[in-house]
Structure formats: C-alpha cells, structure tokens
Specification:
The chain has six helices and two strands. It is mainly α. It has one domain: Ferritin. The protein has a two-stranded antiparallel sheet. Strand 1 and strand 2 form a beta hairpin.
C-alpha cells in the first residue's frame, strides 16, 4: 500500500504517537456520547441495546488510547499539552448530526457502517506500521476486535430494517464521506496552488521590475532642473 511508508514516518517518534493517541481518545469519547444520545432517540429496542454497547466500546477505546498516550508522554518526558490538532477528522470519528435526513435508523446505521469500516482499515494499517512498539500495537489489536463487531452489526441491522431503502441510505452515507473528503482535498490543493503561484510571481516578476528601477535610477540626473516663468533655467544645484 502506498500509504504505508507515509504512516511509518508519521508514527516514527514516541512523542508524535502519544499526541495522535490522545487525539484518537478525544474522538472516541465524543463518538461514545453521540451514540448514547442516538440510543435514546431510536424506537427500535434491539438497536438501542446495540448502540449502548457501541457507546460503551467507544468509551473503553478512549481510555485505552488515552492511557497509552499519557504513558508514552511520561516515558519520553515530553511536556503535557493539547492533543495534536487534526488537519482532518480522525479516522474513527462519528457524528450523529452528520447522518443524512430521512429514516431515523437506517441512515444512522449506514453512516456508522461506513465510519466503522473506514476506521477499522486505518487502525489495521497503524497496527502494522507499529511493529517496533508492541504495547501500542496491542491497543490497536483490542480496538480492532470491537471494530469488527461494529462493522458486522451495522451491516446486519441495516439490512434488517430496510433492504432497498437501507441500500440507498448506505450509498448516501458513502457519497457523503466521499464528498467531504473531496472538499478537504480541494481546500488543501487550493492553498498549495495559491502559495505556488505567489512564489512563482515573486521570483519571475519582481527581478525585472527591480532591474528597471535600478536602471532608471542610474539615468536620473544628479540635480533637477525646471524653468522659471520668464523662460530662464533654474537648477537645484547651488
């Protein structure tokens, strides 16, 4: 996979690992709260039980990530500080407010299924590139067991609730994730292109103007002359 060398570089230092784990802890805790709120809103008793179990799993993941992240900070004697600011949403992020409008349960399950599947893929990749850190690798192994269950139950109960409409909700959820990823990529690309254009303009346009200004300064006479109303010349030189 092309992303493997990039993630090896991202996770190469203990300090960076710690801050990423702390960011994941915040994301998982937020997701757990959203899932608990969603469990209160559903009218399906079976789905309510599953969402509450999912919320408990997310809280446990937050404790696992947070505990390992804080331990790494202590081991490296790095100063405690805010978690690494994400350039984009963390891979396990869930937000019930992002669920498409429509059916109350099927869109929710479709959104969770796509999110959990994406998170499981990323976490599996992180576990693979952390071969030199067995303790952190073990954290991802524990989390991935729950992610496998989350992917399976969301797929199963999405099919149970509404087969045709459930597939439509799943496609909408996938399209929503792709659309958000495209917007993030486009925003980053616009910034890079803008910086590149300004840099090119600076190096291509500024030197000729500076050269012309120096030549004009060399041609300018030492003093300035003007004419009096009577037609005689007056000089600025004494």
């Amino acid at each position: 996979m092309l992303l493997r060398p990039l993630h090896r570089w991202i996770w190469r230092t203990a300090d960076r690992r710690a801050r990423k784990l702390l960011r994941f802890a915040e994301t998982e805790a937020d997701g757990g709260r959203d899932l608990a709120r969603a469990a209160e809103l559903t009218c399906d008793p079976m789905l309510r039980r599953l969402l509450l179990r999912h919320a408990a799993d997310e809280q446990r993941h937050a404790e696992l990530f947070g505990g390992r992240g804080r331990l790494l900070l202590r081991e490296t004697a790095a100063p405690a500080g805010p978690a690494e600011a994400p350039a984009a949403t963390a891979p396990g992020a869930r937000g019930v407010d992002d669920v498409p409008a429509g059916m109350p349960d099927a869109p929710l399950l479709a959104f969770l299924h796509c999110s959990e599947k994406a998170a499981a893929g990323r976490f599996a990749l992180y576990r693979e590139v952390l071969a030199d850190d067995p303790a952190t690798q073990a954290v991802f192994t524990q989390v991935l067991r729950d992610e496998a269950f989350h992917v399976a139950y969301t797929r199963k109960h999405l099919a149970r609730l509404a087969r045709a409409r459930g597939r439509l909700a799943l496609w909408r959820a996938r399209a929503g994730r792709l659309g958000k990823a495209y917007l993030r990529l486009a925003s980053a690309l616009v910034g890079v292109i803008g910086t590149l254009v300004l840099t090119v303009q600076y190096f291509l346009l500024l030197p000729p103007f500076a050269l012309l200004a120096r030549r004009a300064a060399r041609r300018e006479p030492a003093g300035w002359r003007t004419r009096s109303p009577s037609g005689s010349s007056l000089s600025s030189e004494s």
